[in-house]
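lol ok so funny story. i was supposed to be doing the assay writeup but got distracted and ended up predicting the structure for this chain instead. priorities right. anyway since i did it might as well share w the group, maybe its usefull for someone
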Amino acid sequence: MKFTVSEIAKMLDGTTVGDDTVTIDSAAKIEEGQPGCISFLANSKYEPYIYTTQSSAVIVNKDFTPKQDISATLIYVDNAYTAFTILLEEYQKRIATGKSGIEQPSFLGENSQMGENGYRGAFSYIGRNCKIGNGVKIYPNTYLGDFVEIGDNTIIHPGVRIYDNTVIGKNCCIFANTVIGSDGFGFAPQTDGSYKTIPQLGNVIIEDNVSIGSNTTIDCATMGSTIIRKGVKIDNLVQIAHNVEIGQNTVIAAQAGISGSSRIGEQCVIAGQVGISGHITLANNTKVGAQSGIGKSIKKEGLSLSGSPARDLTEHLRAMASTRRLPELEERLKQLERKREASEH
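and the output, tada:
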């Protein structure tokens, strides 16, 4: 798919310096650009590459002032990183619109409805009484249970499994092999040492503009709903347990796990391999460093946490610095002990 620089600038509400008739057919890192590519410069440490890049065009911030001649056409925007993201989204959208119609074999259950301009891939299965919006793409080998609802322009990638009664909003993207709505981990211990399965009767609600990475699992609620609020971005290989609620625009990186009935606030950032205990609350704008463990509620907003158990980031870094000095402190202690013993003799 090809665009001229002028078309891209109009799309991004930007202005150009240079030849805006150049045709762009791909995107590349600024240090790896070739003719026909478009790149972006958002981090000043990459500025040297803008003077040597072979990319045909580069998106830059409005306050960028070149120190040397630049062969590429420049597109000036308010925020280069955001603009480049918008460009990639548009490119992806136009590619996705190429998929339409119904491939066979595929199955649409009794009383299920699918909107206009959609796509159902081969071997996809849609159960009974489902409501699928306009422009929805359901890729091959996908399973939707009964009474599932999906909003307009949502994309369900290959191999996704969506259980009964799940509700998914508009403009969502669910990547391959994710499972939504399977049973939560609920077992009641018995007097004989065995466990009795607790029926999981709730559902999952995913609001608009949510992205969920590959091989992520979101369990249905025991009762009520597990809820993913609008704008949430979830990485691959994330586990979200029953009755969890994730606040809007929160970001969760790979291999994080959130235990049952926890409440994660808005605008939180949860890094990779973070573990969060059940029945706790994380305040809005909390940032949790990689491999941290959260064992109690965080009520103050805007904290940055790290470690296991997690604590304030500054305190954690100070403790880590002290830990690195332990061998030195141990040697000093031994010297003091030797001096004391010598003085006693």
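The mean pLDDT is 92. The first strand starts at residue 3 and ends at 4.
back to the writeup now i swear
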